[in-house]
Amino acid sequence: MAHAEQAHVPLPVPAPFTGRQEIDLDVVRELLSHFHYSDFEEAQELILSALQEVNEHFGWVSPEAAELVAEHLGTTVNRVFGLLTFYADFRTAPRGHHHLLVCHGMSCYVLGSQQLVQELQDRYGIADGDTTPDEQLSVQVVNGCLGVCDRSPVVKLDDTYVGHVTPESLNDLLQRAIAGRAAAEAATRGETVG
Amino acid sequence: MVHVAPSEHLSRLTSKEDFQAFRQQAHDRWDQMWNGDKIVASVGVGSSSIAKGALEVLDRARQELGGEGIVREVSGNGAFWMEPWIEVKRPGEPPIVYGPIAPDVVSAVIAGRRQDLAVGVRGDEAFEGIQPLSAHPFFAQQKQILMRNSGVIEPDSIEDAIARGAYDGYFKVLFELSAEEAIAEVTTAQVRGRGGGGFPAGVKWESGRKARNFPKFVVCNSHEGEPNVYKDRHLHESDPHRILEGILIACIAVGAERGYNYVGGEYPLAIRRFRKAVADAERLGLIGKNILGTGKNVAFRVRTGGGAYICGEASALMYSVMGVRGQPRTKPPRSVEEGLWKRPTVANNTETLANIPDIIVNGGAWYASMGTENSKGTKLMTNQGPMNRLGVVEVEMGMTLNTLFDDIFGGMREGYTFKGVQTGGVSAGPLKPEHLDIPVDFDSLGDVGGMLGSGGWVIFDENVCVVDFARYLTAFNRYESCSKCVPCRLGNPALVEILDRIRFGRGTLDDLTLIKRTSKHIIELSLCGLGQVAPVPLMGMLEHYEEEFRKHVVDKVCPTGTCPMSVAASDLEPEHALAAD
Fold first, then answer.
1. ipTM score of the complex?
2. Angular region, B110: left φ>0, alpha ψ -120 to 50, beta rest
3. From the CA of A98, how many Å to the nearest CA of chain B?
4. Residues of B in contact with A109 (CB under 8 A)
5. pLDDT at A8
6. Which superfamily, per CATH, for A95-188?
7. How confident is the model at residue A79 (pLDDT cuts 50, 70, 90)?
């Protein structure tokens, strides 16, 4: 594939620590308190928005949070979960410490994003939507487009976009992110990592 | 993100004269800014340029100028290849655009010491040897109507938008035209649906107006889930007021009590900027009760999608707005009879609605004078693949693909050979080099199996295996099938299985027949538009590149070396690959 011919691009150093998000139900209540409605029709229109708000804040939606949403908008938790599992943006399990988006748009695909997905599968044993057993890394394959097509193939690790990625550079990026986090955690405990 | 506050300094306008005064102020403010004695630095910030460091450039510019100059956060201008860019207007000079630039050269650029990084002058005349931007090949043959404000106004500023003509059309519909006259202009303009269908907007509005069931709604479909199109995202990020104005005009014309905009959830910046536009317009009293004292009422709601491609289908979209799974239903009844909450609903694409303000201001005849016999006006186009210049462009209908690809997009990148172009997102077939002299409009491309669709072109080169590419397109449709009806739910996985068999070197000639038969079933028996076109890309690939397919199944060779069979056929199991898409 064509990506092998691309020049080596220095990788940015990713943010060391993002932190896994446990869902604080009081925060969910606070988020929901901004959703007002005048009738049941409007309440139903707000279900998806409310779920998006929670999903965006915590990276996922837990059954307890879904229950709060259902309660606030006068609907059933079954319906809320039906939506959570239908729409691809929602996660029903927490993210890893690092969250990786792999763009799988056409441009990225023709320049080799499938090899990145394969690399994640082979080396970390995770496919779209999975988290590694040590909770370090979760991955989401974006079936749409991240919109940075002139840097294909593109991934987004936490808040950093990285372009022209190869399986090797992806692995390098992930290893450095994971090591960086371990070092940051050790530093908060007052240790140094050799 | 749901709650975006409006600008504090805005206050409610209650009459025609109020609005005219506000518009005059906005114009004066705009003129003062550009003719003042302060440096004006504008940084193009959009989703694509943020990924390349536009926010750092913006920060640097703010530090650099402090209170001495004006730093503006405008949107991208569609030219991805020059991002991140900064436009600097020094007193007494025209605005000059520089790009791509790194944050550490910002101060030198602002000081005018890096004229070598200049791309062009925004204006008509050259300045000190720097050519006008409009003479650059990327811009020279564009005809920018919808993108007139891209990279020029601050999308978060309603005053900027109004200074550049926003809400003039709305004003005209409120005070000068009757609803029938407004619809007549749209009908005269012959503007056709830009989402892919090509249905005349005027006809749709007419039926919406005639519906005798109240209340009525207008829904703007801004959900582009296709893996290669970003035109609507660009419109939202660069000129949200234009879309909002188009929706509001539609509401007044068809007599709808509420307008909706349904935006794909994957575009946070587009959503934020659009919500800001709505909040500002509400605060000014352009949305709400008794608008500008006319007694007309229009409410507005923004709804966001959850990453389901199917929600771009009109009936699925309405279900999604109503808070249920986005699954299409059978028609009739059509949505203008029974749509959102079982009320008459006019659903249009973003780009269609974004055309409306200019049609109202300049008249339908003006619009109909552009384009070809059956496709009027301009079209936004996006491209992807190994080309020299990527981006969003706006061209008049009827331009040939050769002009578009070679002149505007600058041809193939060095080292890549053009093999074909995938058209119509995931809903149509590819075109080969010999088809590139075809004019781009709604009808011409259909004759060779292509489609204008939403105007996204994916160029692929000789390194891409068509079997592999066809599998990608089919797998996309498999993933995005809503699973409501059987032919699509089971047919697409079956097609992917057949293609995998071929990719792993186990295909036979019979498989090619099987592909055609299965595709026919899906096309004829599926319920909605997505299912009915899901196998079309595969059929097109098979038709145009049959030789390559035959090599795969007869000689068991993948000419580009992409397919797994050329790696080590015995080591890999098809399941292995299936796990990953």
1. 0.89
2. alpha
3. 18
4. 227, 469, 472
5. 45
6. Glutaredoxin (3.40.30.10)
7. very high
